[in-house]
C-alpha cells in the first residue's frame, strides 16, 4: 500500500508546485499560510482558482 500512497503524494506535490508557480498572485490574495496548512485542500483551492483565472485574463 505504500507505493500507491507514495504516487498520490508525489502527484499532489507536483500539482501543488505547478499550481503555486502558475497562481502565485492568487496565492498572495488567499494567503500563503493556507498553502502550508494542508496540501490536499490547497490543491482543490488552486484547481478552483485556475478555473476562475482564464476569464480574468
Summarize the structure in words:
Residues 32-57 are annotated as: Disordered. Residues 32-41 have a biased composition (Low complexity). The chain has helices at residues 2-22, 24-30, 32-37, 39-56. It is mainly α and 57 residues long. Helix 1 packs parallel to helix 4. The longest helix is centred in the N-terminal third of the chain and has 21 residues, at 2-22. The model has no long low-confidence stretch (mean pLDDT 61).
Query: Between the first and last Cα atoms, what is the distance in angstroms?
Result: 42 Å
Share of residues in strands: under 5%
Number of helices: 4
Shape: rod-shaped
Oligomer: single chain
Number of strands: 0
Q: What order do the helices and strands follow?
A: HHHH
**Mind describing the biggest β-sheet?**
none
Structural class: mainly alpha
Cα-based radius of gyration, to the nearest Å = 12 Å
Which parts are unreliable, with pLDDT below 50 for 5 consecutive residues or more? none
Helicity, as a percent range: over 70%
Q: Output mean pLDDT.
A: 61
Region (Disordered): 32-57
Biased composition (Low complexity): 32-41
